[in-house]
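Handoff note, outgoing to incoming analyst
You'll be picking up this chain. Sequence as last confirmed:
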Amino acid sequence: MALDSDYSVEDVAKALQMSTRWVRDRIRLDGAEHLRYGHIIRFTEKQVADLRASHVRSIVKEPVTTGPAKGSRR
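Most recent structure output, in case you need it:
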């Protein structure tokens, strides 16, 4: 029986060019999906892709304002 490959925290951290602490924090703080075999944490390929996609930032094309422009009257 062949199982799909699982990836360790270290594998994921290296692939995403992040620290293992960052990966573990994503699990703890963000609830990132993962597999747990006792104390061993593993990720499927889909879970790694989902983790990566959840931290993609889109480019804002319009400036973000926090209120009326200076000098404008309301």
